Amino acid sequence: MKRINIILFSLFIFVLAMAQDIEELNMISTAAGITQEEAIQKAREMGFSEEEIKKAIEGEKKEGAKPEEKIVEEEVEEMKEVMAASPPRPGRVLPFGYDIFNLTPRTFEPLDVGPVDPEYPIGPGDEIIIRLWGEVEDFHSLVVDREGKIFVPNVGRMIVNGLNLEDVRKKLTTGMASAYSGIKEKTTFVDISLGKLKKIKVFIVGEVVRPGGYTIPSVSMVFNALYYAGGPTTRGSLRKVKVIRHNKVVAEIDLYEYLLSGERKNDIRLHNFDTILVPPIGKRVSLTGRVHRPAVYELADDEGLKELIEIAGGVESDAYTERIQITRILKDEMKEIVDVNLKEILESESENFTLNDGDRIVVFPILDIMKNYVDLEGNVQRPGRYELAPGITIKDLIQKADGIYEDTYLNRALIIRTLPDLTKTIIRFNLWKALMGDTLQNHLLERWDVVMIRSIWDVGIEKIDTIFISGHIANPGSYEFYNGMTLKDLIFIAGGLKEEAYRLQAEISRIIPERGTDSTEVIFVEMKEGYGIDEDTTGTFFLQGNDIVFIRKNPYWELQRNVTVEGEVTFPGIYSLETKEERLSNLIHRAGGLKETAYPKGARFLRSKNNVGRIDVDLKDALRHPSGVNDLILEKGDYIFIPRQEASVYVKGEVRFPISVLHEPSKNVSHYIKRAGGFTDDADKKHIKLILPNGRITGQRKFLWLDITSVPPGSMIIVPKAKETGGTEWGEVIKNVSSVVSSVVMVIFVIDRLNP
Questions:
Q1: What residues does 661 pair with on adjacent strands?
Q2: Helix/strand/coil for 319
Q3: Judgement on whether residues 255 and 333 belong to the same structural domain of the protein
């Protein structure tokens, strides 16, 4: 939305800034259907601040600024974003040369100040700067008027229109010599230069993005001017841009010369009221494939295939030039394929190939197939792909690969050979005899041969066995088996037993092939307790390849099991359980027993094992009856907290004054609710909750209508809010009706007093 606002506002400012005076402003505003005040008001409604509006108008009105530039830049930036977000599809080419005009006009805008070419014609609007120095020092900045004249102080009016800078320098020096004698005597010197240059009006028409009239610097060339109009469209020609002056074509410019070589030899400086015409595009062809610049190109009438390849930068190194393909549109609305030998055309000085409008040329790559190579695989020093030199044999190839390894299997090797019909066959040979130069075994190699050499381990002459150990070992996993390896050796290699490992016995699974399908045997190996580096039966038990060793966990081993007791005990803190059967009462005894200030009924018991959480425990009963129901067996992580003696009961919820009430023996729930001000109107009297000090939750107990609930100190009474039934609230209805009746009575009373 912000972007749309900016574009709309820019259009408003463009309308306003085009006006040169009040009358023109009114005329443009009327034609656009908007006044200056309406444009500014519209900008305010879009959210622009007064400062932004002021800057926009002043920025468009400043001297030399072109009202359309801001819009042009935004359109160009938008075009760049679209092109970046939508790259050309694979195989699709874009017209050549047009993207250079996506840049802003300022990129190629000539400077208003600075040196000009010697033939620059001075005219109305140019600034001529005259400096006198030496015996007389003076400075004059003179602007050529509409009649092509300047007024030189002490000299008079002088005509300079159409003269170049050198002619003006001579004319002014001669004219001023009559007023300044020091010029002839060479005691006073004259320096003539140009200041700010004039603007000229040119018209850009034809196949351009934004045709129209433009005010540009007078030193602008055709290439500069085209940028103001956004450049030619893809329907416009880049090869035949015409400059029309006084109804005559004074120049025809080929923009390809600048784009391809940087030369601007045909580009000319524009004059006031020149017209630049971009005609429709001429012969256009598409070139894709293995060339340096695939694109859609415009060709001149006398240009053919050879010139097209040159314009595209030539072919790539992997291009197949003996056959390129041209898809051509025929006059009967059909297409045909034409194959052309590009190599012959490029090598010939006179031969060429004529292209038609709409031709599509494809330059194919060479085949990705290598012919002169062989592959060497397996147990050699440098396996890989090698050049197939004339007369190369197996022995020659292995020597190129720096020979074979010591464990190479010499009795057999293979050649996989590709036949002319691309089928494959196997040739077997004795590698040892081939290396000795036996002519029957040392085969002559052919293209695409694959020589395979293997080691004794690959073919099963020798094999590497592994052994596996798992369980409570430092580094379980597979290990290479060595002859003479014992169980103790394997445990040593695997980093030793873990602390919790069962050290009296190891279990080994072994394969015995002679037994057939029932080939697995489980062996139990006895070890000494406290196994270390001393010799024992483990050190004399020899392993075999593919054995699997299991180290079990000691069922009686575990780390200390700690529990925490805090609060009103003699020695609070962390305790390690002595046995798996230790109970709560024993822990309290180890903690020095309860203090006199302890409140056992409020004891809280938390169990973290299996996320059990809070357990309702009667500590007083547990201490009175050891091993009873409340004397729990403790678990690792248990937490026991014994609070101080409480002296109050807390009442909360739907009571009038939620407070803590001092505990009174033998008082029930109703007593404490009354002490808290009684129930509110929203109280649910049937579902009162009583939370005992040890966390147990119970309700109000009654016998007939009598409350017989015992409330120990430290308890909490919660009165919930009654659930809404959705029925008619008659109390609220009566209240509202009463209010209405009172209002009616008051109105009647007032009317009666006003009409006695």
A1: 649
A2: strand
A3: no
- The length of the chain is 756
Q: What is the CATH number of the domain that holds 213?
A: 3.10.560.10
Structure confidence at residue 539 as a pLDDT band (50, 70, 90)? low
- Is the separation of the CB atoms in 538 and 531 below 8 Å? yes
Which element (helix H / strand E) includes 222? helix 222-228
**Residue 747 within a domain:** no
CB distance 463 to 409 below 8 Å: no
Judgement on whether residues 21 and 61 belong to the same structural domain of the protein:
yes
Residue 655 lies in a domain: no
User: CA-CA distance, 149 to 143, in Å (whole number)?
Assistant: 8
Domain-located, residue 524? yes
- The CATH number of the domain holding residue 180 is 3.30.1950.10
pLDDT at 752 over 70: no
Range of the domain at 250: 106-110+199-278
Q: Comparing C-alpha atoms, which of 613, 615, 591 is closest to residue 603? A: 615
Sign of CA dihedral 394, 396, 397, 399: positive
At 634, list the tokens: 């403790």
Q: Are strands 283-289 and 360-363 parallel, antiparallel or unpaired?
A: parallel
Q: Which of 356, 309, 313, 353 is nearest to 336 (CA)?
A: 356
What is the rounded distance in angstroms from the CA atom of residue 339 to the CA atom of residue 326? Answer: 6
pLDDT at 464 over 80: no
pLDDT reading at 608 higher than 70? yes
Q: What are phi and psi of 652, to 5 degrees?
A: -140, 170
How many domains, in total, are found in the chain? 7
Cα 678 to Cα 687: distance, rounded to the nearest angstrom: 15
Residues 304 and 236 in one domain: no
* Cross-sheet strand order for the sheet of 520-526: 477-480, 466-471, 548-551, 505-511, 520-526
Classified as helix, coil or strand, 443 is coil
DSSP 67-87: HHHHHHHHHHHHHHHHHHHSP
Closest of 207, 210, 278 to residue 239, by C-alpha = 278
Both tokens assigned to 8: 């709309």
Give pTM, 2 decimals. Answer: 0.45
Q: Does the pLDDT at position 710 exceed 50?
A: yes
Q: Going by C-beta distance under 8 Å and a sequence separation of 6 or more, which residues neighbour residue 623?
A: 585, 588, 594, 600
Mean pLDDT of 185-190: 87
Segment 688-695 shows an average pLDDT of: 79
Same domain, 139 and 178: yes
Query: Higher pLDDT residue, 388 or 264?
Result: 388
* Three-class HEC string of 111-159: CCCCCCCCCCCCCCCCEEEEEEEECCCEEEEEECCCCCEEEECCCEEEE
Same domain flag for 377 and 445:
yes
Q: What's the helix, strand, coil split of the chain in %, to 5?
A: 25, 30, 45
User: What per-residue confidence (pLDDT) applies to 678?
Assistant: 86
752 occurs within a structural domain: no
Coil, helix or strand at residue 253: strand
